[in-house]
Request: fold
Amino acid sequence: MNFYLNEYSLCGQFATIEDFVTTEIGSIYRCIMLVKKGNLVIINSEKLKDAFITKEERLSDLGRIKQSEELLQLQLCLQEEAYSDRYWENSDQLQQDMDAIYVWNENDVSLTSMAEAAASDSPLLSFAREGLTDQKIRVQKKKRGVDNIYNEIQSIHTEQYLVEKYGENLALSRDDVLKIRYRGTRIDYTTIESEHGADQLEKNEYNSLIGTLDKFIGHESFNSIDLDDGLEYKKYSPSQSEWNRFSGGKYRNMQIMKFRYSRKERVFGYRKKDRFCVLRIERDHKTSNHG
Amino acid sequence: MVNKIMVKGFKCFADEEMELKNITLLLGKNSSGKSSVIQSLLILKQEGNNPFRGDYIELGDAKDLTNYIVASEEIKIEANYSRLGEQGEKTAVIRVDEKGELLEKRRLLDLNVVYCPANRIGVETSYEKSPRSDSFLGKNNKYVFSYLATHQRDQCEDAFIYDKDDSLFTFEGQVNYWLKKIVGYRIKAEEIEQIDRVAVQFQDASSTVNNNWVRPQNVGTGITYVAQLIIAAFSCKQGDVLIIENPEIHMHPAGQSDLMDFFAFMAACGVQIIIETHSDHVYNGLRKCVHNNLIGLDDQMIYYFVDDENGCAEPKEVRLNDAGKSLITEDGLFDQINKDLNVILGW
Reply:
């Protein structure tokens, strides 16, 4: 499966480079890295480096700008693309019909990645641009003497949408899926201890976990979480030190909390400011029995 | 803990003072002043009339060490420090004129200092047995494995036990917990009594074969180097100072990053750690620890050394936010990858 990095979606829509760096790079970077991690192919256009970020500055101008770490991340992940000769322009066999015109939103997108993706029925990885952000788009192929053909393809901008549409192709673990699903919410799943993650769960337990985590982030505040009898959100407090499964310097300065996601299953973690950092998913109540 | 050090007229320093925290990183180009800070601390530990020659370092004589740029007539090194469990701050001072005359010596730095120099001992067939019973690891850490052989069955200080579910509570157990976590190996050391040497062996922690212990020559060089640092850190007690030059030596980037988790943990436990490095993985590793709350923002300090207008060393504080992001950018501060990528990508 191939993804096309959509240079057409970068058309000078950002007011400043800072806007681009702070709001945009993380999203496209995470999508690119997920696709690469899934051993899927990203096809690039040699026109990408000339695409405009602001009205006056192109992607290739970023090297002259004081570099940020976000930009470095983007550079590092594009570096492989630059060397891999995966420019569709260099392909022996272009997917798009050179005798046709490709139209999206009344714009001629012939000889862009939009047309190439549409012609090969492949998804796009797009920068944030109206009409191209996490949605199915329709590209029209017009050719003299032939009825118009409409191709519908996905234009992906966020990792959440990428996982929703192509999660199975990306071969992600459940813990990876949960990290992505809850990024930027009240649940921080990046802190999960791998040996206590969601991969141990049966499917119904996993679904219960997701349902409960969704409920957790849907709450107005930690006050309302405290008052939710179903969650039973409370301190983990073993009465004897030998029963404490969170001892040692690793957990120093952490007040371990727990809540239920099914009859006997529990989620353990700690609160950091307005977020709950998940450490362990328990399915046998052994830890919870003693605290 | 050393809270502050003032260095005047010594090598590249005209007159500078630096705050030190639980963990302090010293960064900068070659010959920018990083090692001179470490040497200043060690000078305050060395006994005798020439503080520049001693158990820790041999720097020569005062005439070779005075700052020639500002034509210093004397060297003055001063440190404010506090001892665990004692009230108030103490001061250690050494002042020497350019001829080497000791002008002032007020108290040595009364803290246990463990120093891991860049030229620490490497891969050997066997290692020297320490003639001493204390925690002195010897010049170039030559007794570090002897220390492990002597203390491996000792109970580890409770505060230093990171994961009580997954490790033995002995000195050896904790060394091996971190060695496995960082590079995937275990170590054992045994005295060879007849010849006063110590034999060291390593085992791949992921192996299912029990007796596959091998000599240091038969594992990656970095395994021996990182094992030394872990042992050196665990030889410390709360309140001690651990100084490390280039912890990254022979280490894979992933190991360097994990090693910083270990140092951040030990620093949070009360061992003061001072690290000189050229590695962005060490720098990023510390910032990751701040992000992950392994070390408090106020418990770390990063200095980047630059030349001032005269060519003397000037320490610039690299301030972080609580997410671990640097709040300053400086030319040369781990920006080489950006510079090279700009060329490669044609940006």
Remarks:
- Helices of chain B lie at 34-43, 62-65, 144-151, 171-183, 221-234, 253-269, 280-291, 336-345.
- Chain B has a mean pLDDT of 93.
